[in-house]
Design goal:
By secondary structure, this protein is mainly alpha-helical. The chain is built from two helices and two strands. It is 17% helix and 6% strand. The chain has a two-stranded parallel sheet.
């Protein structure tokens, strides 16, 4: 995981989404990051590498995960309302007790 991507994400949605708008071709590496119990509602995580990341009990409402690599990620107990999963790699994704409602596929 590139530490600067994790630190940037930790600076909040506004900072993160503005950075994503400024650098749309960058594919942030958040692989193996522990993001459990974070409110990521509205974050643009398009094309992020979240392989083996822990997103358990997260608020992922209206998150853009299109083209993201979620292989082996743990989303157990997370809220995925209106979450965009178009072309996301979801092999071995853990969704136990997750709340999925109207995903955008």
């Amino acid at each position: 995981m590139i530490q600067s991507h994790f630190e940037l994400l930790s600076n909040g949605k506004k900072v993160w989404n503005e950075w994503r708008d400024e650098y749309p071709d960058v594919k942030p590496d958040l692989s193996s990051a522990d993001l459990s119990q974070k409110n990521l509602s509205g974050y643009n995580l398009h094309s992020c590498n979240l392989q083996h990341a822990t997103l358990a009990n997260c608020d992922l409402q209206d998150v853009n995960l299109a083209n993201a690599n979620l292989e082996g990620a743990n989303l157990a107990g997370s809220y995925l309302y209106w979450t965009t999963l178009r072309n996301a790699k979801i092999c071995l994704l853990q969704l136990a007790k997750a709340n999925v409602w109207k995903p955008v596929l």
